[in-house]
């Protein structure tokens, strides 16, 4: 599956522009980390695909997410197994699969934090430009702000990729500023 096919599939399954934006943000984050880690072209594409498609069934099949896509959509797409397994592991409470592979750990680490950082950027006139880790972590303490974002998952994600949360935030802010 190439980027055009993946984007068409995303648009078919996710009409909501906000959720599409989230998926594109996670894809950009995954691609940036793959490049930072020196992954080859095919692996980098797989990381991007995992980010783009991780919430594919969320809007139309929220109670079955991500299992509906895993069982009914992805088998016919030609996606590499590592992409499918990473998507399975990004929701361990729903699938029983923990993020163990490198791609799965990074997908988990980029998912919740991307949504939270987007919410923070909306509150700032400069958006992601110049965003500091401290401003994000301070907002994380306010449980009413972006209340649907699981802060424990954000901390767990940084731990899974063995990265300081502040460094993770700064890296992603630069990625999102340039996306």
Automatic annotation (TrEMBL):
CDD domains: HDc
Top-level taxon in the UniProt lineage: Bacteria
Record-annotated HD domain positions: 21-114
Protein name: HD domain-containing protein
Organism, as annotated: Natronogracilivirga saccharolytica
């Amino acid at each position: 599956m190439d980027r055009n096919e993946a984007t068409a599939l995303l648009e078919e399954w996710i009409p909501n522009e906000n959720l599409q934006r989230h998926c594109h943000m996670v894809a950009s984050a995954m691609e940036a980390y793959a490049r930072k880690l020196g992954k080859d072209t095919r692996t980098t594409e797989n990381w991007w695909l995992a980010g783009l498609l991780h919430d594919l069934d969320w809007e139309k099949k929220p109670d079955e997410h991500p299992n509906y896509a895993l069982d009914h959509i992805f088998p016919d797409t030609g996606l590499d197994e590592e992409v499918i397994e990473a998507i399975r592991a990004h929701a361990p409470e729903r699938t029983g699969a923990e993020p163990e592979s490198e791609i799965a750990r990074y997908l988990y680490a980029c998912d919740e934090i991307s949504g939270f950082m987007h919410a923070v950027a909306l509150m700032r006139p400069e958006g992601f430009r110049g965003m500091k880790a401290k401003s994000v972590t301070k907002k994380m303490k306010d449980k009413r702000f972006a209340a649907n974002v699981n802060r424990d998952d954000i901390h767990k994600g940084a731990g899974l990729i063995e990265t300081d949360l502040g460094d993770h935030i700064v890296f992603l802010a630069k990625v999102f500023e340039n996306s």
